[in-house]
Amino acid sequence: MNFRAAIDVMTKKEILDPQGKAVKLGLNNIGIDAIKDVRIGRHIVVEIEADNETEAQQKIEIACKKLLANLIMEDYHYTISKI
Amino acid sequence: MNFRAAIDVMTKKEILDPQGKAVKLGLNNIGIDAIKDVRIGRHIVVEIEADNETEAQQKIEIACKKLLANLIMEDYHYTISKI
After folding, report:
1. Whole-model pTM?
2. B39 vs B10, B27, B43, CA distance in Å?
3. By CA distance, what is A48's nearest residue in B?
4. Order of strands, sheet of B35-49, starting from the edge strand that comes earlier in the sequence
């Protein structure tokens, strides 16, 4: 079976996000005010073959911990769906 | 009222994603096989003040079209929730 994992990797809240700050200024400059905060991270879509959802989840968990996220600075969240 | 928009910006399917290809190879190298495809985009979290959800959505729509996504190469999706 094939599964699709949608993974969001974001810098932790206590770490500054200069890219987000720049985008917030950019939004103000094009006339969109009332922006409180902008944070920018990565959205990773992985298509994976596995026998069942549990196996897919285990593989995605390992992928996040070992490669996709830097756990010192980043948090990750994901959802898995069958395709 | 404050709203949080979670925006995913991804390159269109017909456009090559070399970063995703590199990550796919990386996953194979650390022993995670059965990966069919990897695509990498941006995950942008915007906190915005608006009178209601419709107004927040309009502002986010403009932000995506004018600044956050390059519509020639990228697609965007978002969800808005009250915070």
Report:
1. 0.92
2. 8, 13, 13
3. B35
4. A74-82, A2-11, A35-49, B35-49, B2-11, B74-82
What percentage of chain B exceeds 90 in pLDDT? 98
Return the structure tokens found at A35.
Answer: 């922006």
Are the Cβ atoms of B38 and A44 closer than 8 angstroms? yes
Whichever domain contains A18, its CATH number is: 3.30.1280.10
CA distance A80 to B12: 21
How is residue A21 written in tokens?
Answer: 């700050």
In chain B, the number of structural domains is 1
**B45 within 8 A of A39, measured Cβ to Cβ:** yes
For chain B (83 residues), the mean pLDDT of every run of 10, in chain order, is: 96 95 95 94 96 95 96 96 93
Amino acid at A69: A
CB contact under 8 A, A59 and B34: yes
Residue range of the domain that includes B74:
2-82
Q: How many CA atoms lie within 13 A of B55 on its CB side?
A: 12
The rounded mean pLDDT for chain A is 95
